[in-house]
Amino acid sequence: MCAYSLYPVIVDWIPGLPQIPYRGGVGRWEGVVMHQTASPGDTARSERMYESRTYANAFVHEFIDPNEIIQVANPMYLAYGAGPVANPRFIHLELCSNRTADEFARSFDRWCQRAAVFLSMRGLGVTPALPDGTGTLWSHYDVSRYLGGTDHSDPIDYIQSWGKSWQDVVQTVQFHYNAITGGGDMPALSVKMRTKLSLSCPLPIMRRACPLRRRSSIAWRTLCAGLPGSRSSKGAGLVIFVVAADAIAHRFYSTRGVIAKRIFCMLGASG
Ligand SMILES: [Zn+2]
Q1: Is the previous residue joined to 155 through a cis bond, with omega within 30 degrees of 0?
Q2: Residue 62 near residue 69 (C-beta atoms within 8 A)
Q3: What phi, psi does 37 have (nearest 5°)?
Q4: How many angstroms separate the alpha carbon of residue 129 from the centre of ligand 1?
Q5: Distance of alpha carbon 211 from its chain centroid, rounded?
Q6: I need a surface site. Which of 102, 128, 145, 237 has the fewest CB within 10 A?
Q7: Torsions phi, psi of 74, nearest 5?
Q8: Which residues are within 8 A (CB) of 49 and not within 5 positions of it... i.e. 6 or more apart?
Q9: How far is the CA of 140 from the centre of ligand 1 (A)?
Q10: What letter would DSSP give residue 253?
Q11: Is the pLDDT of residue 17 over 60?
Q12: Among 149, 147, 119, CA closest to 132
């Protein structure tokens, strides 16, 4: 039985976004900036719709609400989330607004897990931002005060209104990071898929190993879309998949040679 689960991610990139590499190159983010929308009543979907019209001014990589995580921009390329100094360095994750403590708790945990996933994909660890510009986990407020180029102070006031501090964010991201990376021995991960999987994995080692190949509806190449070393997908429209699980598989499982058992558990599946 698998103990730890990754939340599903809906990948629905806004068409036409600029594709500008990070300062270190494509896919080479240095950390994550945590944002809050400050738009009462919004959802990940409504934010995506809004951003699809306004991305020339600003856009982030993902919106997180209590029920959905929507990836609206390819994380391999930079977004316009926090000004010209931070953008070439960081992933941007935006927490939507919540109406109840339960909604806040659910979206908060998803938001922190997504930060941990992106940090773990690059093996960056979880270190809070410092005035000298180092650190991997940033609030937009940290960017404003340490890097400049922007003047927002989110998400500090918002999370405080629900009884959370920035330190709580750091601790929760660290919790997820530890669960995902598991130190020397990878933990078993399980992911509740909304649909079943089919296999055309670009990683031969995984293709051989996976027992799920006969269950179709999401192609492995779609799962792997946009990740370093994988082929891109021609998937059209809304594709529901678990980018995090695949990213972890790609980074850790294929390189460590610990494959089949853990991937089965991670994907799923099968309940
Ligand atoms: Zn912000």
Answers
A1: yes
A2: yes
A3: -70, -30
A4: 15
A5: 26
A6: 237
A7: -60, 120
A8: none
A9: 5
A10: I
A11: yes
A12: 147
| Backbone dihedral region for residue 27 (phi beyond 0: left; psi -120 to 50: alpha; all else: beta) | left
Q: Compute, in angstroms, the gap from residue 189 CA to the centroid of ligand 1.
A: 31
The encoded tokens of residue 134 equal 């180092």
Reduced to 3 states (helix: H, G, I; strand: E, B; else coil), residue 33 is strand
Kindly give the residue spans of alpha helices, DSSP state H, lying in the chain.
Answer: 44-54, 83-86, 101-121, 140-142, 156-161, 166-181, 204-209, 220-223, 243-248, 254-256, 260-267
- 144 C-alpha to ligand 1 centroid (Å): 10
Query: Measuring CA to CA, how many Å separate 7 from each of 80, 128, 143, 161?
Result: 25, 23, 27, 25
CA of 152 to the centre of ligand 1 (A): 6
HSE-CB at 97 with a 13 A cutoff on CA atoms is: 12
- Quote the ligand 1 centre to 170 CA distance (angstroms): 17
Q: Structure tokens of 13?
A: 């990139």
Q: Which domains does the chain have, with CATH numbers?
A: 4-181 (3.40.80.10), 189-267 (no CATH)
The token pair that represents 11 in the structure block:
């990948």
Question: Residue 27 and residue 36: Cα distance in Å, rounded?
Answer: 23
Q: Does residue 250 or residue 150 have the better pLDDT?
A: 150
d(CA 190, CA 18): 34
**pTM summary value:** 0.71
Q: What is the pLDDT of residues 25-79, one digit of tens each?
A: 999 999 999 999 999 999 999 999 999 999 999 999 999 999 999 999 999 999 9
pLDDT recorded at residue 201: 36
Give 66's contacts (C-beta < 8 A, 6+ positions apart): 98, 102, 103, 104, 106, 107, 110
CA 194 to ligand 1 centroid distance, Å: 30
